[in-house]
Amino acid sequence: MSDLFDLVVIGGGPGGYVAALRASQLGMNVALVESTHMGGVCLNWGCIPTKALLRSAEVYHTLGHLQEYGLSASQPSFDLAAIVKRSRGVAERMGKGVAHLLKKAKVTTFDGRGRLAGRAGEAHKVSITKDGKETAQIRAPHVILATGARGRQLPGLETDGKLVWGAREAMTPDTLPRRLLVIGSGAIGIEFASFYRDLGCEVTIAEVADRILMTEDAEISAQAHKAFEKRGMTIHTGAKVGPLKKGANEVSTTIETAKGKVDLTVDRVICAVGIVGNVEDLGLEGTKVKVDRSHIQTDEFCRTGEPGIYAIGDVAAPPWLAHKASHEGVICVEKISGRSPEPLHARNIPGCIYARPQVASVGLSEEKAKAEGYKVRVGRFPFLANGKAVAMGEPEGMTKTVFDAETGELLGAHMIGSEVTEMIQGYVIARTGELTDAELMETVFPHPTISETMQEAVLAAYEGALHI
Fold first, then answer.
1. CB under 8 Å to 235, separation ≥6 — which residues?
2. How far apart are CA 359 and CA 372, in angstroms?
3. Which among 397, 391, 410 is positioned nearest to 347, based on CA atoms?
4. DSSP state of 180
5. Which residue pairs from 378-382 have beta carbons closer than 8 angstroms and sit at least 24 positions apart in sequence?
6. Catalytic residue positions?
7. Distances from the Cα of 139 to the Cαs of 4, 9, 75, 124, in angstroms?
8. Phi–psi pair at 351, nearest 5 degrees
9. Averaged pLDDT score across all residues of the chain
10. Which of 50, 99, 248, 280 is the most exposed place for a label (fewest CB within 10 A)?
11. pLDDT tens digit string along 336-364?
12. How many Cα atoms are found within 13 Å in the side-chain-facing hemisphere of 152?
């Protein structure tokens, strides 16, 4: 086998393996280097297995409310080990699927860590190591860095795998904690808080910002806060968590807010305070690749400052989402192949949170649109006025739209409630296709569906909502 390839991808996460598959479709000879699991963190220890956990928790919650649907079942219970086993099984199945796709596409895979090792003429050299020993050295004129990221560690709040969990430990618990502290209220923290609360844990959330879900529209954030408190969670915002004092099987700390100090003792802590890019030991020294706060700087086509070196996914710029990484993989490879892909438009990338209730959004929030100088028209429609949501027993939620009052451009859309992560794509298509209020008003939505709230929220922005 020749050691010369058209493209080498370092990292087998969503962006990496999608880039490799697309490059193969375009006729390139591709090598993919992955040191752990094909599919990366997302498939093995993130997106997919957490959704399996959340699904189990959702079903268990529904079993506890069967009487509301005219049904009954005696003493619903759960088996934590079986829930975790199912989650791991789903991840394993998807991982095997990725490996099959790569084999089918004739992508050459290497088991090990990839590192830039200088140049050989026009090609970049990539050294591959396993257990500290070099196992191969390959070359390619183009190298994509898709090494992902890991959980951020803060002084005094470091994870230890036993009492203080990161995401990996949180999704493979051997026992269910009775009391749980979640530090951080982004998507990861909120999803774990939702999962453990549905299984009966006493959940406390501590967030340093002045509200939870800081990347979401403030109105949606406030509604989520109320919904989580209604479920029995305790939420502290503007919170500073003191050093963690570990006992034999519990953790004590102090949470300080503007309202005062709260002493808290819990069985386990989940630390979900952001990520840092995996930029170490990539051989970036001596290259023109620039790193800013642990993330590699790129242009709109994922090119770094070093010719022939690209970066995609969580190791590059935000938003740090699997679907953004996959799309970057496609446009990066198409640009390399000489095609003319559209550059990445970050504001057209949807964000989804799979807690109960779900949250989904795309584009600008109302406050950000105003801050950028737009004169806006805002429409809101509650799920309580939607027949399908009421029939499903899911009347709590809202769809919100933000339009440019002068042009009719859809600046942003924000949703909270049942299945909104499945519906947000409608607004994403509208933004990608540069549709305006007029096209959205003329679109016929099927009845009865919760998606009808999407059109009603558009009509509401122009005082034309029919069912409120």
1. 185, 204, 205, 207, 212, 225, 228, 229
2. 24
3. 410
4. E
5. 378/402, 378/403, 378/461, 379/403, 379/456, 379/457, 379/458, 379/459, 379/460, 379/461, 379/462, 379/465, 380/219, 380/457, 380/460, 381/453, 381/456, 381/457, 381/460, 381/465, 381/467, 381/468, 382/453, 382/468
6. 447
7. 5, 11, 61, 5
8. -115, 140
9. 96
10. 248
11. 999 999 999 999 999 999 999 999 999 99
12. 16
What residues contact 163, with CB distance under 8 A and at least 6 apart? 244, 246, 249, 250, 251, 268, 269
Q: Which pair of structure tokens corresponds to residue 164?
A: 């203080």
Could you give the CA distance from residue 262 to residue 181 in angstroms, rounded to a whole number?
13
d(CA 114, CA 127): 6
Residue 220 has which token pair?
A: 């949606």
What does the pLDDT look like over 239-276, one tens digit per residue? 999 999 999 999 999 999 999 999 999 999 999 999 99
DSSP summary character for residue 68: G
User: Token pair of 85, please?
Assistant: 């086993």
Residue spans of beta strands (DSSP E) within 42-201:
108-111, 113-120, 123-130, 133-140, 142-145, 149-151, 164-165, 179-183
In the structure encoding, which two tokens stand for residue 396, read together?
């709590």
The label of the residue with tokens 């406390």 reads: 204
Neighbours of 131 (CB within 10 A): 7
Q: How confident is the model at residue 326 (pLDDT cuts 50, 70, 90)?
A: very high
Distance separating alpha carbons of residues 281 and 309, to the nearest angstrom:
15
Tokens 């409608």: give the residue: 426
C-alpha to C-alpha distance for 126 and 338, rounded to whole angstroms: 23
pLDDT band at residue 120, thresholds of 50, 70 and 90? confident
